[in-house]
Amino acid sequence: MTKNVIVVGGGFAGVEFVQRLSKKLSSRDVEIRLFEKEGDQTFRTEIHKFACERINLDAIKIPLKRILPSIVKLENAEVKKIDLKNKKVFTDKSYDYDFLIVAAGSDPNFFGIPGMKENALSFWTLEDAQRINNHVKKIFEDVKNIKDPDERQKMLTFIVGGGGFTGVELMGELMEWTDKLSKVNGVDRKSVKLMMVEALPRILPNIEKVDVVNKAIEYMKKYGVDVRTNSMITNVSADGLTLKSGEFIPTKTLIWSGGVQGCAFTNQLDLKKDKRERIIVNEYMETSDPNVYAIGDVASYVDKSNKPMPGLVESAMQSADVAANNIIVSIKGGEKQALDLKLHGNIVYVGKRYGVANIKSLGTFAGYRAIPMKHLVNMQHMFHVGGFGLVMKYLKDQVF
Ligand SMILES: Cc1cc2nc3c(=O)[nH]c(=O)nc-3n(C[C@H](O)[C@H](O)[C@H](O)COP(=O)(O)OP(=O)(O)OC[C@H]3O[C@@H](n4cnc5c(N)ncnc54)[C@H](O)[C@@H]3O)c2cc1C
């Protein structure tokens, strides 16, 4: 009998899952529906460039219709409710499932810091990127009419909270974009304050070598970025933020990239979760409900040596492959596959001309050569999901 497979989320994990499943199963075996509320796939790892106008919206959109296998029905809709007991998914309509795959990604984690959610600009989704773009441009326009020096300085202070790879990538763009915005709006660039505030003793914890991280900090300093570590934010208001030390920093712009947690939509699901609201899975990507799998950022997996699966594209892709394989096994028989995560490293942009790379086969380094490598990694991904056509689109959007 044909099984109904429903996938919630068309990000890295959701798309990889349906592509893998469709290779081994036909429409006689399964009916596959993929729900994506943003319509197309967001190439999330590049949204900082869109936020700061280095690339346009089209460049971070991967048309799902173009890359989904023909047996997958694309539903451009938000899943609002799931009834695990009766195996139903609800948008404005309802759909039955035999297997449900939750690939809904993550949401910003504000860690309960008073005022953070209300006053900071979060940085994770396409909407966030658009909001940051509008906000920063408006500040530069409005400041021209402000005479009071304290108010001007508050407006021209841009702070990124969180020094992980998303925060550093955003700061890399901001420092170059504020150069341009200053020129266009007749603002003295020296009066623009850029600051990165990190609670931990160091930034970029995913890059092992501290000396390489220090090179990135030196590079950011050339653009006037003040990187503050050991600086926990304890309160945020509409006019600034307070650090644990008691220091108050006046600003109209705090962009929060201090961490993520499981996607809020999964709160309603009566599945076992971890402290960060992510759905706990075993090595087969099975959840506490036998018909539900979780993959990618929304899944919480800890291996036998107690290593948690990090929120990365490689984790999303590999967990998706495991879930697809195990659903194929439950339909066709065979041996279940356990996740054996193989991470090859990552590359962090620090603006247009500089990057930090931590690659298993090549080591850790900082400099210009990280940039073409990042393009190669992105193009390899494009080829994997959409063939040569998507590689050409990438080259047009990002390189030429
Ligand atoms: C600026 C930035 C830079 C990054 N750089 C890197 C990097 O260099 N390397 C790296 O490995 N990782 C990087 N990441 C992290 C990486 O993007 C994530 O780990 C990855 O996107 C996780 O894939 P996913 O499929 O689980 O989630 P996502 O890609 O977030 O996809 C989830 C999808 O689910 C959809 N969705 C959610 N709820 C619903 C619903 N109720 N109904 C329908 N659809 C829904 C969302 O719209 C979304 O499209 C970066 C992230 C950011 C923001």
Write a short abstract of this structure.
The chain is built from 10 helices and 25 strands. By secondary structure, it is an alpha/beta fold. The chain folds into 2 domains: 183 residues, 3-Layer(bba) Sandwich (FAD/NAD(P)-binding domain), CATH 3.50.50; 143 residues, FAD/NAD(P)-binding domain (3-Layer(bba) Sandwich), CATH 3.50.50.
Molecular structure report:
- By secondary structure, the protein is of the alpha/beta class.
- It has two domains: 3-108 and 261-337, FAD/NAD(P)-binding domain, CATH 3.50.50; 116-258, FAD/NAD(P)-binding domain (3-Layer(bba) Sandwich), CATH 3.50.50.60.
- Helices cover 34% and strands 23% of the residues.
- It has helices at 12-24, 47-51, 64-67, 116-119, 126-143, 149-155, 165-185, 210-222, 313-332, 370-399, and strands spanning 3-8, 30-35, 41-42, 61-62, 72-75, 81-83, 88-90, 94-96, 99-102, 106-108, 121-122, 157-161, 193-197, 225-228, 233-237, 240-243, 248-250, 253-256, 260-262, 279-280, 292-294, 299-300, 345-349, 355-359, 363-367.
- The strands form eight sheets. A five-stranded parallel beta sheet has the order 5-2-1-9-21, covered by helices on one side. A five-stranded parallel beta sheet has the order 11-18-12-13-14. It has a three-stranded antiparallel beta sheet with strand order 6-7-8, with no helix packed on it.
- Strand 13 (193-197), helix 8 (210-222) and strand 14 (225-228) form a beta-alpha-beta unit.
- The model has no long low-confidence stretch (mean pLDDT 96).
- Flavin-adenine dinucleotide binds at residues 8-14, 35-38, 42, 44-45, 47-48, 78-79, 103-105, 124, 165-166, 169, 263, 265, 296-298, 311-314, 316, 346.
